């Protein structure tokens, strides 16, 4: 395997706490310069993986490389402070008795040009003029930016962020996410963040890694993950999905929606995954579908359809021509993903 452009490379990493396996033979890679998300439900092991990379936990099996340097295996560990990794914690963990400027400069020790570096970072995160403030005099969004600036100050090889946006209220969160991404891009940082919010992972990251029960299920670009999930579990966890039975033959499949094209040739009984927005609805008194329910959100709407004894969800833009009780014809846009039924 070519590892030259990898910022992180975890091979066969396992971790057990009190006889419970929290990470089970995890392989995980992140290319240099990219922004990665570890996504999964509570308890799937994502924070443990982040803490192993940071060096706050020891691993039972496997190896971790940071660039070309092996930083951990089951026998030896590079101490966290020698890993050149920056951390941003969920609670920001700013030093309450230090000013903004002192917080940002904390990791710089006595290095020459320290003040210049602090000023650069204040400008980078848009907090010029606030160097003398204390953390409690800042808004949540500003505190988050100080935490980011403090982590970036020593120019770490890698930045790890643990649920970095979860303490912000919904209105501010989107703005802070976008600003954080811009800042990371501007300095060319490689960063990995943990989240259980799929929208956050999809909208921010270059690479999203879905974890479940201590295993990595899939690591891919947001588009790939959403449009080409490799398992039913990923399809179910990321976005909304309809699952329906079908019978495949080569590139085609027969199902309640008629004959559809598959993304790859398959044979025999399969489970199809169709995203609600991939369904086209046309009012048609002789159509196979009936609209049973409608949830209108303005920018879009979700419609519950009955087709034979199957219930599926469709998402469309706002339309005046669709309403409950109507019959509709239903077609599917583009080829569909199928999983072999067991
Ligand atoms: P969350 O989003 O809730 O933080 P997570 O996916 O990040 O979840 P982890 O924090 O990695 O999950 O925890 C995975 C499992 O390991 C959990 O069941 C947790 O209780 C357990 N665990 C984590 N740290 C320890 C520890 N130090 N001692 C014992 N068990 C632990």
TrEMBL record:
Signal peptide positions (record): none
GO MF assignments: ATP binding
Keywords: ATP-binding, Cell membrane, Ion transport, Iron, Iron transport, Membrane, Nucleotide-binding, Transport
Chain ranges of the ABC transporter domain: 8-238
CDD domains: ABC_Carb_Solutes_like
Stored PANTHER family: SPERMIDINE/PUTRESCINE IMPORT ATP-BINDING PROTEIN POTA, SPERMIDINE_PUTRESCINE IMPORT ATP-BINDING PROTEIN POTA
Name by which UniProt lists this protein: Fe(3+) ions import ATP-binding protein FbpC 2
Organism: Herpetosiphon gulosus
């Amino acid at each position: 395997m070519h590892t030259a452009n990898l910022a992180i490379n975890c091979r066969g990493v396992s971790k057990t706490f009190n006889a419970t396996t929290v990470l089970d033979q995890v392989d995980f890679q992140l290319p240099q310069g990219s922004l990665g998300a570890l996504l999964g439900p509570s308890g799937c092991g994502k924070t443990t993986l982040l803490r192993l990379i940071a060096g706050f936990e020891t691993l039972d099996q496997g190896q971790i490389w940071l660039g070309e340097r092996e930083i951990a295996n089951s026998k030896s560990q590079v101490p966290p402070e020698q890993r050149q990794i920056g951390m941003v914690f969920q609670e920001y963990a700013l030093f309450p008795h230090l000013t903004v400027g002192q917080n940002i400069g904390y990791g710089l020790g006595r290095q020459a040009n320290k003040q210049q570096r602090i000023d650069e970072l204040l400008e980078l995160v848009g907090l010029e003029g606030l160097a003398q403030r204390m953390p409690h005099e800042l808004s949540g969004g500003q505190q988050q930016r100080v935490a980011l600036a403090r982590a970036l100050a020593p120019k770490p090889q890698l930045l790890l962020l643990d649920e970095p946006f979860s303490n912000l209220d919904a209105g501010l969160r989107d703005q802070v996410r976008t600003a954080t991404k811009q800042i990371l891009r501007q300095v060319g940082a490689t960063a990995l963040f943990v989240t259980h919010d799929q929208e956050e992972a999809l909208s921010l990251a270059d690479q999203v890694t879905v974890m479940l029960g201590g295993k990595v299920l899939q690591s891919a670009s947001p588009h790939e993950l959403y449009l080409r999930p490799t398992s039913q579990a990923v399809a179910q966890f990321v976005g909304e999905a309809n699952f329906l039975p079908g019978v495949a033959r080569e590139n085609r499949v027969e199902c309640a929606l008629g004959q559809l094209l598959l993304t790859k040739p398959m044979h025999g009984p399969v489970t199809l995954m169709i995203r609600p927005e991939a369904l086209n609805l046309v009012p048609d008194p002789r159509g196979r579908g009936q609209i049973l329910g409608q949830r209108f959100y303005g920018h879009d709407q979700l419609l519950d359809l009955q087709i034979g004894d199957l219930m599926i969800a469709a998402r469309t833009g706002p339309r005046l021509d669709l309403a409950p009780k109507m019959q509709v014809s239903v077609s599917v846009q583009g080829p569909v993903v199928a999983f072999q039924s067991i």
